[in-house]
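Notes from the 1:1 (GR / supervisor)

We went over the backlog. Supervisor wanted to see one worked example end to end before approving the batch request, so GR pasted a single chain during the call. The sequence is below; no edits were made to it. Supervisor asked that the structure be written out right there so they could see what the output format looks like.
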Amino acid sequence: MNPANSKIISKLYFGLLPTQILLLALSAVSGIITTLFASNVIGSIALSAVGVYNPVYLFLCALSAILLGGSQILCGKFLGMHQIKEMQSVFSLNMILALLISVIFTVLMFVGGYFDLTGFLASDAVVRHEFNLYIIGLAGGVIPFLLSQQLFAFLTLEQQNSRLIFSSVVYIVSTVFFTYLFLCVFPLGTFGLGLSGAAGNWAFLISLLPYFFRKDCLYKLRFKEIKRHYLKEMIACGLPGAMLRIYQTVSTLIANTLLLTYVGADGLAAVSSVMSLVEVFWAVPDGMEIVARVLFSVSVGEEDKHSLTDIMRTVIFKSIPLIAILAAVMVCLAVPFTNCFYHDPSLPVYQMTVAGFRIIPICLPFVVLCLSFENYAEASGKHVLAHIATALYGVIIVSLISIFLIRRIGVQGFMLANVIGWALSFLIFLLYAVIKNKHFPKTMEEWMVIPKDFGVDDKDRMDISVQTMEGVVRVSEMVQQFCESHGVKKKKAFYAALCMEEMAGNVVSHGFTKDNKNHSVDIRVSYKEDTLILRIKDDCIQFDPAERKDILDPDDICKNVGIRMVYQIANDIEYQNMLGLNVLTIRLV
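Structure output shown during the call:
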């Protein structure tokens, strides 16, 4: 394990995490606003209508997750391989499909609500009437909801934090404003509740769009370059993760039916209240899942097994302890959380809600663990394993336990079923590792079942990190020794050492001095098929050496001479600003 590379991975992981959490939390915040207004302005019957909509919302999110998950994995791999046109082709295909799906859903929701075709979702006539009004109002917001989900996620990969924060503020403020307008100023009831959500979605989309028309935007719409064969690969990569949402849709439908049958509308209202607030905190494990998926995909594209294990170590030893603390805090705040929705402790719905807030958070550490292994399985092409795992914790275990427990202990049975389902489902990954290794896994590579022939063999690669110019000089010597030990001709070995010293030294001399942050340069040298590959990765400000190689200052002919020399020596040089990191790859044949 390279400690410095592990540090960069950890820094990158937690650097990307806040914006991903923000994206997922936004819809949850909208849900909280909806449920708070519904419970305090309209009444518990409106909450029941929102609860009936949950399976529809989950299914829509599942379709979005297929597109987003698949395109992120493919784009991550293309980033790792420095194939920008292919990445833009996938992005363009993603946006077209997102628009098509959202138009279909808009029509289905409006027609279903207007003509009362929703009996399969809500058998109770009163609840169904309110549900129909809600989805008619909400139908107009499906298009901006799905498109903004995609755009926001890609903006996080561009590290556009100021734009993301601005759009998030716009979304929350507009949602509050329109909800107040359509419920309090113009008392439109449940229809107004849906209409306010649609208006907030449009405000969010409009605030995101301008960046994608900028010249420096990496993700551009290239409709003429779309390659339809990527659709199959996108679905194959995104389906396992998205199937979790589909399975949860089925599980929620089963649970809703059981709750209405054995507990009543209060049980469904309690679950809706709990899940609306927990969804905000659930954004943390979901954000961890998305960031891990992107990093796994990039590392698979680079064929970098060490980064793969570093990512998983970051998840297990840093993320899970954090999420466990968050879960404990949520359990302790069960009563204050409940008081946001209901104010009379003697009501059954109050007691059921408190119980839910004390049980559901226990899922969170198991969620992070399972989804991280599932995302590695997706990125590495183990689609069957990913499908089996999501089926287990998405619907099979949870539904079976729910059927058994809800009849006996009511709402608490549904909550406990979720905890038990997530805890038991990790066993599928353990069983897979035992079968493949033919023994209990001992190392992270064995836990992840990374093929032994994946990437460059350890003896044919060298990983070093430097923080000083003295370290750069030492690395230059080590590069030359590495080359000579692999039978590389002295001239090529000398050129390799020279290239590494010049480019790494340039980062230390200039990149490190641009701010007051601590930086390091992660260096990898590999020898594969008679080709020397030098990779320099740093977390300094964006710098493309290609922009300097042709600049010649008449007053200082030595300026940039080192960069120009490297471009003359190397057979191929590729630069990519990848997830906020400068990645320079030099090949010497």
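Supervisor's comment: The mean pLDDT is 79.
Batch request approved.
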